[in-house]
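Changelog-adjacent note: as of this version, every example in the card shows the full chain rather than a window. The one below runs 146 residues end to end.
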Amino acid sequence: MEWGMEEKQLLRRLWDEGHTAGQIAKLIGKDVTRNAVIGAAHRLNLPKRDKPILNKSKKFKKQTTELDKVENTNNEEPNSLNKTMLDIKNNECRYPHGDPKQSNFGLCGHPVKSGSSYCKFHHKLCKPHKATIDPYRLIPAYFKAS
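Full-length structure tokens:
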């Protein structure tokens, strides 16, 4: 894209007003992309932005489900509902139970933890806290010091 004087002036004005590169690209139009705006801003030596500009009204709050509010204090694995891939819904746990070659194979089926494919118990089982992960577990034994 050729940046004419009008586009450059508009870019400078919108940049100074605090618009994001994506917003500027939409306002200029003419198939201008966000990356084209960023490149032009760099070539025009416009001031860099330390942090992305966030419109507070557009911030998304993490949605919590009833399951997130309830703490499983006994840490017992919930009974599997043995759902099949055809029966499972978007908001149900997909943790597998049993041997896939056997007829008793199924998926957990309990309500999922928000932001996960698993219920709260299976989420903790599959996604351990970073502090509990041994960084050396991936290194073969012959590389470890004796």
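Structural remarks: Strands lie at 96-97, 106-107.
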